[in-house]
Amino acid sequence: MIGLFLSEVVLFATAALLGFAIGWRAFVFIAGERRREEAREVQRLRSALSDLQVRRARIS
C-alpha cells in the first residue's frame, strides 16, 4: 500500500515538473517573439520619424 502511494506521488511530481518545464519553455519562446516584434516596431517607428524629420527639413 505504501509502495502504491509512493509511486503515485512520484508520478504526480514527475507530471508536475514536466508540465512546469513545458510551460516555462513556451513562456520563454513567446516572450522572445514578443521582444523581437517590439524591437522591429521600434525600428520601424524610428525610421518613420527620421523620414519625417528629413521631409520637414527640406520643406523649411
Would you kindly provide a written description of the structure presented here, covering whatever features stand out?
By secondary structure, this protein is mostly helical. Helix content is 97%, strand content 0%. The protein contains 1 helix and no strands. The N and C termini lie far apart (88 Å).
Which series of helices and strands comes N to C? H
Percent helix: over 70%
What's the number of helices? 1
Give a short account of the largest sheet: none
| Tally of strands | 0
pLDDT < 50 stretches: none
Strand content: under 5%
Specify the structural class: mainly alpha
- Rounded to an integer, what's the Rg over CA atoms? 26 Å
Measure the end-to-end span: 88 Å
Rounded mean pLDDT score: 95
Shape: rod-shaped
Short summary:
The protein is mainly α and 60 residues long. 97% of the residues lie in helices and 0% in strands. The protein contains one helix and no strands.
List the helices and strands and how they pair.
Blueprint: H1 2-59
Annotation keywords:
single chain; 60 residues; mainly alpha
